[in-house]
Amino acid sequence: xxxxxxxxxxxxxxxxxxxxxxxxxxxxxxxxxxxxxxxxxxxxxxxxxxxxxxxxxxxxxxxxxxxxxxxxxxxxxxxxxxxxxxxxxxxxxxxxxxxxxxxxxxxxxxxxxxxxxxxxxxxxxxxxxxxxxxxxxxxxxxxxxxxxxxxxxxxxxxxxxxxxxxxxxxxxxxxxxxxxxxxxxxxxxxxxxxxxxxxxxxxxxxxxxxxxxxxxxxxxxxxxxxxxxxxxxxxxxxxxxxxxxxxxxxxxxxxxxxxxxxxxxxxxxxxxxxxxxxxxxxxxxxxxxxxxxxxxxxxxxxxxxxxxxxxxxxxxxxxxxxxxxxxxxxxxxxxxxxxxxxxxxxxxxxxxxxxxxxxxxxxxxxxxxxxxxxxxxxxxxxxxxxxxxxxxxxxxxxxxxxxxxxxxxxxxxxxxxxxxxxxxxxxxxxxxxxxxxxxxxxxxxxxxxxxxxxxxxxxxxxxxxxxxxxxxxxxxxxxxxxxxxxxxxxxxxxxxxxxxxxxxxxxxxxxxxxxxxxxxxxxxxxxxxxxxxxxxxxxxxxxxxxxxxxxxxxxxxxxxxxx
RNA sequence: UGGGGUGUGGUGUAACGGUAGCACGCCGGCCUUUGGAGCCGUUAGUGAAGGUUCAAAUCCUUCCACCCCAGCCA
Length: 563
Description:
The protein is an alpha/beta fold. The protein folds into 3 domains: 14-263, Rossmann fold (3-Layer(aba) Sandwich); 275-343 and 472-513 and 520-560, CATH 2.40.240.10; 346-470, CATH 2.40.240.10.
């Protein structure tokens, strides 16, 4: 039982769409809330789409309403069944469910045709026979009114006849269009007699060859919303200019009138979101494909190891506003770490192995040491890890001539091997080029488990893997795809490709993992202690494990090292 | 150039005429068998100029900046 005055600070403020919905419910404009997510099946969803998905589904949930999935498939030239499947898969992965409400704009083609006939009969639509170029000329520029098409005055009968023959396929592509008769002088370009149908003798992914005229977005979208009984049609800001037209169509038809509201899209630093740019990255092989772990596509992020929870949380904290904005990648990374830290098992893995021989440890001896699976979750328990005379540590964890802020292993210095013993470095072995190839150390048998009975402290704890028990693996390290926060900030005469981060992918082939990782399965996520979060890539086989680094741990040492 | 929209610390977001708050980042400290996590603290903001008011991020006026629109794309 909570007291209403108890803690006002925990009440989440409502965004402008929620406030509008509250009013609409209060005024009786709508009795219940029904939203929809309306993707065009012409590409793979990315994190920007995740925001639209989450807004629509979350609002429906919050108000006890429903959210439909509706494919906006009015352009057969761009759309494919492969994409509808991909979109469904990604929405489900994000954690949203449209139940049996999977609709298609193409479900409404017949109804739309009848609506169009009604508008023609009412004298509100006409068949135009201007070419695309002519139509553009007649439309005029922003600051001057357009001119009426010479065909604007056709009789209802002639329009009806022509429109029917358009449907029958009597005319070639592009020879006629059906246009709404609104106002060629409107300052809003969308109202200058917008096209409603174009002739397109193209195969549609669902209706096949049944149609050779296809409705435009403006003509189909609001009507689809209306047919489905949508209350709030939420879309991104670029459709704000279309709202007058949206309203005009449903008003003329006298059908259920949903309320369109616009919010600004989600942008992220160091990546690109536009379809055109994403296609270029894939086509020109700057990435391996749509599911490349560096891509902002949901399949890319999934492969990288992102959790749906982290993505949903990002959408939540990004907020819903009309302000154009770009979130910093660190916000996403923080959402991810927050989520992964709580639930993921810790393992030890050495990415850049440096061989260490513990000279006073008996040859052939193996001990099983206890390690904590997740310090954030006592229920995750412990595991045994093998320790022996030869181990690998991270190359970065040793410095021959350490600066004073470095407190890992160095000559004559003692550190703790996590969950094992204190070791001290006695000798550095180098090859002819001066590369450090091996360390000779001694351990203190009294420090088993990591504590010295004499109370002696060490300044660092480092991770390690027993050489004889190590699992070999490939690890792929990812960094931002673009090195510039804004990839579109490029010199004149160049394009965004110049801002690609040359170090966005680094492949390590000789990594040593703790034994228990041998049975890891594709998609499983772990924290490699002191390094970051990693997940098993589908490229893994029984012979060879492949891990992706999802995100690093926060690394304050790396920061002081640079600064 | 016409229309539509948006301006709050570096970034994102609160405030609905009454103490400019939160998150990420940054910087510093505590703690630590992960230089992780956690905890504490610092820094920094109302696009500009006028006006109304006891009081303005909020209301009014003017200006400035940025985004969207001239597809038979969505």
